[in-house]
Amino acid sequence: MKKLYSIFKQGIIFENPLLMLMIGLCSAIAVTSNVSNGIGMGLAMTFVLLFSEIIISLFRKLIPSMIRIPIFIIVIAAFTTIVDLVMKAYFPDLSKSMGVFIPLIVVNCIIMGRVEAFASKQNLPSVIADALGMGLGYTWVLIGLAAVRELLGNGTLAGIQIMPASYQPILFFILPPGGFFVFSLFISFNLWLKKRMEVSARNKELAAKKEAA
Amino acid sequence: MKKDMTKLGLTLMLYASLACASLAVVYAFTKESIDKQSELQLQASLKELFPEATVFDPIQDLSSPDPNIKFESAYEVKSDKAALGLAVKATGPSYGGNATLLVGIGLNRSVAGVRVMALNDTPGLGMNASNPTYYVDKTKKVTFLGQFAGKFLTDPFEVKKDVVAITAATISSRSLTNIIKAVGNAAVAYMDQKAVTAPTESGPSAEAGANTGAQPQAGGK
């Protein structure tokens, strides 16, 4: 149980796919001009990641290593298409606003990376913990980025006007350069947080040792 | 080696067929719902464009002047008493793939209104074409597609001249404008040929204005 929790925790800060591993950035910058898009993309990506990892982990002994990459792509593409169809059928508004980014989940490097590096070698419980952790790590960064960009660039949060009407939106934040700018701030924040957590963990260890002595 | 390759190929085929089969099941399961959604959307949009209309007669012999732009369906719109205009569902290439618009043309040869049926574009940029709170004219609260309502087809329909583009999405703006223009030209030609004309002067133009609430700047600058 403890092991599963530590795998789950990895994806959120220490090995955050966007801020530490720096993969899957294109979609992260592109959809985060609006908080609802961020939530939708995060959930859709988590769903695809979870099910692809589960299937690959279950079949890992039956996948010849020479053709593993095409098989991974087939599995990922199948789940992405399922998400796309289900969204079109039951959440037409969300599907409309996500536009071309749902089909692009197929080539999201996070999924490919996790499937190749993790799911193809691990058993089912660890894989589920990894997928949920990575998905949550991706989603929180998307929502955070989108909140900053939408608030400054459009004066709204999830479409609701927050800033006073006199506020002149800074268009820079909605456009790609603003995305990179906010993203870099998130990276430095995450590094700072990681360092702090490491230092406090080491201090705790030292204190425990001292007490024991 | 040769045996290996056959084996690998067969394994790959097996996985691909399994994926296909599961997709087919999901597709069959969701198809009805997706069709229903798009039909509902079409009916609602037709009603929005022509609030007085009671009959939407499908017509077949309306062809697109542009080979890239396809007309999926076209309707002659009528109220109880008289014809109101034409409505065409047209698909054409845009920035993120094909865009599908429903364009209404009034009897006075002006655009009655435009609605988005399907659009794949960059969220926050090109997607603003279908955003009801994105205004190209903030003071008058005119949306990108709203600016076409009441616009006469004798206008040039050129982005950055008489059509205000969406910020940072000029290509999308231009593509959507082209679709509207193609529908407009085809519809005007059709109406001229079939001699569909307005019974009274006030009917269609008053109706076209009522759709937007605000009169967009017809002449551009």
Query: What's the helical proportion of residues of chain B?
Result: 25-40%
Rounded to the nearest angstrom, the distance between the terminal CA atoms of chain A is: 30 Å
Specify the overall morphology of chain B: globular
Number of domains of chain B: 1
Average pLDDT metric of chain B:
78
| Order of adjacent strands in the largest pleated sheet of chain B | 1-2-3-4-5
Quaternary structure of the protein: heterodimer
Q: Treating each run of at least 4 consecutive H or I residues as one helix, how many helices of chain B? A: 3
* Class per helix and strand makeup of chain A: mainly alpha
The major pleated sheet of chain B works out as:
5 strands, antiparallel
Helix content estimate of chain A: over 70%
Radius of gyration of CA atoms of chain B, rounded to a whole number: 21 Å
Order of helices and strands of chain B: HEEEEEEEHH
Count of distinct strands of chain A: 2
* SSE order of chain A: HHHHHHHEEH
Please, could you describe this protein's structure?
The complex is a heterodimer of chains A (213) and B (221). Chain A is mainly alpha-helical and 213 residues long. The longest helix of chain A has 37 residues. Chain A has a two-stranded antiparallel ribbon with strand order 1-2. In chain A, helix 6 packs antiparallel against helix 7. The mean pLDDT of chain A is 86. Chain A is flat, with a radius of gyration of 19 Å. Chain A has one domain. The two termini of chain A are 30 Å apart. Chain B has 221 residues and is of the alpha+beta class. Chain B has one domain. A five-stranded antiparallel β-sheet of chain B has the order 1-2-3-4-5, sandwiched between helices. Chain B starts with a helix and ends in a 9-residue tail after the last helix. The C terminus of chain B is likely disordered. Classes of the chains: A mainly alpha (213), B alpha+beta (221). Chains A and B meet through helix 4 and helix 5 of A and helix 1 of B.
